[in-house]
Specification:
Blueprint (H helix, E strand, L loop, with lengths): L6 H26 L2 H8 L3 H7 L3 H23 L6 H17 L1 H4 L4 H9 L2 H20 L9 H12 L12 H16 L2
Helix pairs in contact: 1-2, 1-4, 4-8, 5-10, 9-10
């Protein structure tokens, strides 16, 4: 008979699973990250894994959500009521660097990433996208920064800038400098 976990044990085990998944994903990629290894490192059996997650992909979704939450928290702490366009630019540049350092997650064009995306339930992908938009809206609304253009267009533009990471090796120039150049030159078109 399977061991019954207490509520506190479940919380700790779920956190361990997310921690180990993030570490293994960073080292090996999605395809080569095995549930067996994650479970061993988290101290549970593979059978017990399915008490916490219906699939490997849902665990990866929680890793993505946690990483996104870290970035959102950073933005909320960095951008306060009196923030300016330049403050936003500085924070967005730091986010770009953070994504660049963890490019195993943001490399949209890699077959490994595409394999994961193709296996994530559509409703979870939509929820992640919706949460991103809501979080971005909350961050900007707490500052003095006002849009000149439609908010959805601004968010799409910022997403397009982040997508430079997926082709950074093909740009023929330092991708971070290109990102900064584009960002600095469009801010006055997006914000008052």
């Amino acid at each position: 008979m399977a061991k019954a976990f207490t509520v506190d044990e479940k919380k700790l085990i779920r956190e361990k699973l997310i921690d180990e998944c993030e570490v293994n994903w960073g080292k090996y990629g999605y395809k080569k990250t095995s549930i067996d290894t994650i479970c061993k490192e988290a101290g549970i059996s593979k059978g017990a894994f399915y008490i916490f997650y219906d699939s490997k992909e849902l665990l990866f979704c929680d890793v993505i959500d946690r990483l996104q939450e870290k970035l959102i928290t950073f933005c909320k702490q960095s951008l306060i009521e009196n923030s300016t366009k330049q403050d936003f630019s500085n924070v967005f540049k730091q986010i770009y660097r953070e994504y660049d350092q963890g490019n195993w997650i943001i490399n949209f064009s890699s077959p490994d990433y595409q394999s994961l995306i193709n296996r994530i339930p559509v409703d979870r992908l939509k929820q992640h996208s919706h949460n991103s938009t809501i979080n971005f809206h909350e961050i900007i609304s707490k500052t003095n920064i006002k849009y000149k253009i439609e908010e959805a267009k601004a968010i799409g533009t910022f997403n397009a800038l982040l997508s430079l990471l997926s082709n950074k090796d093909k740009l023929g120039y330092n991708h971070y400098e290109i990102f900064c150049f584009l960002l600095d030159n469009i801010l006055d078109e997006i914000f008052e």
